[in-house]
Design a protein that fits this description.
Number of strands: 22
Strand content: 25-35%
Distance between the termini: 9 Å
Radius of gyration: 21 Å
Structural class: alpha/beta
CATH class of the largest domain: Alpha Beta
CATH architecture of the largest domain: Alpha-beta prism
Largest sheet: 4 strands, mixed
CATH superfamily of the largest domain: Enolpyruvate transferase domain
Oligomer: single chain
Number of helices: 13
Strand order of the largest sheet: 20-21-1-22
Number of domains: 2
Length: about 400
């Protein structure tokens, strides 16, 4: 099926949906395996565009990867490399987590390139840290119109001060890289830590590879230098951020059972289950989404169909994702018939019984917006056409297959 523009019809999804592995954990497992001395095996992988990007960058750093029957075998980098081209496609996770790692391994320069809006997403955190450490950091993205960053010089041990309210991927990148430095390091957060769940995933992945980082639980990470990553075998658990789409579908009238989830795991987006349960309560409700921005677009669909008034707060970071997701959610849900208002960076919903539909909407070439509109269409009285649906390959290339298998109607 051609995925350029697809028309979705009102439907009731039904059956079991097995999820892809967590993209967040897969990125981290690949990085750790690529830094280990020996072969690691990662089971049950799915190769979204973002995961391919991280594999490509770590291969550029000297690791080798081989896929055998659903198992990804990675042989770690043998020493350092010199002068590398790191293509990140549109993956912010790849860029932010791999840039410090490349600086730790590469004795020459690493040039980072990419597509889409990646070059316009904030990178000032690393620019300031690199310059403070006396390293070369050259960002020509604004001039060239796409990601164009070159770093040079080995990342030294030291004290790194970072805001805790920026993307946790900056922090994770430092935590992956600094154990390889010659001396001990400290990462200090100058503001409270947001998205702690993602940092917990990083610490979990490091521990799996035999690397120790001491975290006080609030603002200080102590990292012993000269550590070695060891090879490991693992199976990546199901992805809660992708589960959110089908969990919301179930909550708004479908009959979908999502399998492959670990309710005791560290993924912060597992909060979607609690949030959907809370929506069953009567009266006005408020949800703070600061620590779970990825689930906001599809969770907003459930909020728009809930009787009563629902406010979503902590949405400022949605504006610096693949698109301005705050505006995308507001404008496209309004277009299909949601009663939604913006109050600064908050969204306020007054529940409607169903969406009207009968319009064309934009995905903004953003995978999460595209999939959100597909789920919303199951409750639209008239068909909804979504443009550029192929963008789902960034994170969940099998989404449409699972949607159709569950009874979704698409033309």
């Amino acid at each position: 099926m051609e995925l350029k523009n697809l028309t979705f019809f009102k439907s009731r999804l039904k059956g079991e949906v097995k999820l892809p592995p967590s993209k967040s954990l897969a990125h981290r497992a690949i990085i750790c395996a690529a830094l280990a001395h020996g072969k690691s095996r990662i089971y049950g992988m799915q190769y979204s565009d973002d995961i391919k990007a991280t594999l490509g960058v770590m291969s550029e750093m000297g690791a080798t990867a081989d896929e055998k029957g659903g198992t990804l075998v990675i042989a770690g980098s043998e020493g350092v490399c010199r002068n590398a081209e790191a293509f990140c496609n549109e993956s912010g996770s790849t860029l932010r987590m791999c840039l410090p790692v490349c600086a730790a391994l590469n004795k020459g320069f690493t040039h980072f390139s990419g597509r889409g809006k990646l070059g316009s997403r904030p990178m000032t955190v690393f620019e300031e840290l690199w310059k403070n450490a006396g390293l070369s950091y050259c960002d020509k993205s604004a001039e060239t119109g796409s990601l164009d960053i070159t770093v040079k010089g080995a990342l030294p041990a030291g004290v790194y001060s970072v805001r805790g309210d920026v993307s946790s991927q900056f922090i994770s990148g430092l935590l992956f890289a600094l154990p390889l430095a010659d001396g001990d390091s400290v990462v200090e957060l100058t503001t409270p830590l947001y998205s702690k769940g993602y940092v917990d995933l990083t610490l979990q992945s490091l521990s799996q590879a035999g690397v120790s980082v001491r975290f006080d639980g609030e603002r200080r990470f102590e990292i012993k230098g000269g550590q070695s990553y060891r090879p490991f075998d693992c199976e990546v658990e199901g992805d809660w951020s992708q589960a959110a789409f089908f969990l919301v579908a179930d909550a708004i009238g479908s009959d979908v059972k999502v399998i492959g989830l670990n309710r005791n795991g560290s993924q912060g987006d597992k909060v979607i289950a609690d949030y959907l349960d809370a929506l069953k309560s009567e009266g006005d409700l408020t949800f703070d989404c600061e620590d779970c921005p990825d689930i906001v677009p599809v969770f907003a669909v459930a909020c728009a169909l809930r009787k009563g008034k629902t406010r979503l707060t902590g949405l400022s970071r949605l504006k610096i994702k693949e698109c301005d997701r705050l505006e995308a959610v507001y404008s496209q849900l309004s277009k299909i018939g949601a009663d939604v208002q913006r109050d600064g960076d908050d969204l306020i919903f007054k529940g409607v019984d169903n969406f009207e539909g009968g319009v064309s909407v934009s995905s903004f070439n953003d995978h999460r917006i595209a999939m959100t509109m597909a789920i919303a269409a199951t409750r639209c009285e008239k068909p909804v056409t979504v443009d550029d649906f192929a963008c789902i390959a960034k994170s969940y290339p099998d989404f449409l297959d699972r949607y159709l298998e569950s009874g979704g109607i698409v033309k």
